[in-house]
Amino acid sequence: MYDIVFIGNNDKQWNKLKAKFKIAKRASTFAEAKGKVFTKMFWAVWSDIEVREDFDFDYPIDFWDQEYVHSFLNGDTRDGISLCPRNIEASQEEIKSRVFANKKEVDIVASDPLPFDIYEIDTWEEYQYAMQNSSTEMFWGVSRNIEYNQAYMDNFYFSHYNNYDRKENHAFVHDVDERKLYNGVFLYSKHKIISQEEIENRHLIECKQWDDVLSGPKKYDIFSVDCYKDYEYALNNSKTEMFWIIPSDVIVCDNFKFDLYFSYDNKYDRKTNHVFLNKSHYDGIVLCSKHMPISKREISHRFIVNPKTWDIVASNPKPFDVFDIENYDDYENALQQSSTEMFWMSSANISIIDDVVDNFYISHHDKIDRNQNHAFVHEVNNEKFYNGAFLCSKNTPLSKKEIEYRFPVNRKEWETVVSGPVKYARYYADTYEEYLDAFEKADTELFYIIPTDVDLCDSFDFDIYFTYNNEYDRKINHVFLNGEYHDGVILASKHSKISKREWDYRFIAHKKETDLLVSTPKPYDIVFISYQEPNADENFKTLLERFPRAQRVHGVKGIHQAHIEAAKLAQTENIWIVDGDAIIVDEFNFDYQIPKWKRDHVFVWRSKNPINDMVYGYGGVKLFPKKETMNMDVTKPDMTTSISTKFNAIEKISNITAFNTGPFETWKSAFRECAKLSSKIIDRQKTGETDERLKTWTTVGHDRPFGKYALAGATAGMEFGLSRRTDLGLINDFDWLKEQFDANT
């Protein structure tokens, strides 16, 4: 292989060649290269070419061709690699143009021209640096303030034998708004020095101008600037001579593209600061010029001195941050966390008007208002207060006392309505644990507790509201009418926590009763209990026609067990019990309301006896507590008194107890009732009243349907109650009763 000699000062290209071909040598000039070779011929590799990967310097030369220079293609020119005789005598012109007189042309592409070096040249010093350091004979001069077509530039080339263009400077079209300028991209020649004035004015006096568009406007650098330190950073780090500064408290308009551009010939605009509308103020986005630095005071006040103003809305003010502030800790957090210099002090206990708050703005130019606190109208029932929303300045902190009383002392008052009443939070709660959960979760200082066993009135809008100055109502619990009693909906205060004892007894100590009908109790479930009554189906059908919500338990053996099943069926806290032989009177509507504190009581209505016309609790409709019914003492003979000792007799007829539907049914009913009366097992019996009832049961009604069976059953039951009180549980054993009936009739 012939010697390979790299000629020139491009270290990068030399290192690449040496890495692949270890025998390669280096020389500064062609003459020096000749002195370093030992082979008859040598490869001359110039520093401004790129050797192709597939070229291995192994081209064979015949003996008779060794006196010629073999010239290989450098792309599509022949100024690249040459295979030269060691004793070649070439003129300086031949070496410079790389066109040798005594040559043979080889149609092999051995290399490609290296692109001319590219330098950012905006100053005289940068031009001088490029002249000294460019590895190519020509180099491109671009600017940080233009966008240029590098692909075009990488493929643009003058061969070495084009001596004219290689020694000339060239200017290309810089297209700005369809204006063809020649102050963008230049191709400089090291052979034609440019003056400092030409560089600084970007105007070459003598150059070749091309119609090719190589550059256009460049988008200026963009920086977020909120303080002078941010501005200094932008000024020192912007690569473009103009740069945009955007405060963090503005929202850039979607249609603003940051595409404003000033060509080099527009010295006025390039050396001026430009301000744009921030909605209606010039305190937002600025296009800054490095030629006109902005002072610290200008940045602080967002007031640029002697700018060029544009009637273009580039941004809108970012709405001031909004914080719910209920105490001083909340306020201190807002001071630290707010991203805006001013911030709204709202509350979970007011409703702010979003449009007003979002669009209210105080310009940075208005330092007086920016440095004080502002109070706005809080309108409630056409009354104006100034204890709702405030616009606070970080520059004038409020005291703890001002926050606690919602009364900034040195404030500017506005007639603008910014807030109004809020609807207090609502929670459904039946247990104390659910109340406590609501107490913790509620955002508002008052909150509604709604039991699930009430029906809310359509007319109630939950629009009760107390202003901040009404401390009494804000710090007390409010109870409303639930039908007849104040035991339904509660407007609870976080300032007056209800104790478990108060909750369990449904008697709130610290409360205000309001005679406003807010709810009515949900109707209690009705359960019809039947066993073997002949008229049960007919009675249940009649009951359903008037009260479709009624349900039925049928055929459960044992009176206690039947009532327990009825309690399981019910969904309400209390349950109406209707016996299978009961015919409900027209005046009875199952609409009795039990106050909350009596939900564990037993209520018994009167019924009319069809045999003897007595009217008292026997066979009457009953209202039982569900929980106590399910847990009753099944060993007690009297089922009603086994549920609860808290007994209430209601002096109103609910039904006719039509037990006289057959001999056994009549006898059995009379037997059971008189056994209980004579045994005196019913709590709180009055002896005289009981004796009178026994007398009536055993003597009256012989002429009524099945009346003789009633009298017989009553007499037998009275005797059984007097003689066998310890066996009284047998009266609930219907099989035993049938045996007694059969044996005695």
Features of the shown structure:
alpha/beta; Spore Coat Polysaccharide Biosynthesis Protein SpsA, Chain A; 6 domains; 25 helices; 745 residues; 27% helix
Question: Would you mind describing this structure in some detail?
Answer:
The protein has 745 residues and is of the alpha/beta class. The protein is 27% helix and 29% strand. The protein contains 25 helices and 41 strands. Helix 22 runs antiparallel to helix 23 (687-699), helix 22 (663-679) runs parallel beside helix 24 (707-723) and helix 23 packs across helix 24 (707-723). The model has no long low-confidence stretch (mean pLDDT 95).
Task: Furnish the topology, listing elements before pairings.
Elements: E1 3-7, H1 11-20, E2 25-27, H2 30-35, E3 41-46, E4 49-51, E5 69-74, E6 82-85, H3 92-97, E7 103-113, E8 117-120, H4 124-133, E9 138-142, E10 146-148, H5 150-154, H6 163-166, E11 170-176, E12 179-181, E13 186-189, H7 196-201, E14 208-217, E15 221-224, H8 228-237, E16 242-246, E17 250-252, H9 267-270, E18 274-278, E19 286-289, H10 296-301, E20 308-317, E21 321-324, H11 328-337, E22 342-346, E23 350-352, H12 354-359, H13 367-370, E24 373-380, E25 383-385, E26 390-393, H14 400-404, E27 411-421, E28 425-428, H15 432-441, E29 446-450, E30 454-456, H16 471-474, E31 477-482, E32 490-493, H17 500-504, E33 511-521, E34 525-530, H18 536-546, E35 551-554, H19 559-569, E36 574-579, E37 582-584, E38 602-608, E39 615-616, E40 622-625, H20 626-630, H21 639-643, E41 647-657, H22 663-679, H23 687-699, H24 707-723, H25 734-744
Parallel strand pairs: 1-2, 1-3, 5-7, 8-9, 11-14, 15-16, 18-20, 21-22, 24-27, 28-29, 31-33, 34-35, 34-36, 38-41
Antiparallel strand pairs: 3-6, 4-7, 5-6, 9-13, 10-14, 11-12, 11-13, 16-19, 17-20, 18-19, 22-26, 23-27, 24-25, 24-26, 29-32, 30-33, 31-32, 36-40, 37-41, 38-39, 38-40
Helix pairs in contact: 22-23, 22-24, 23-24
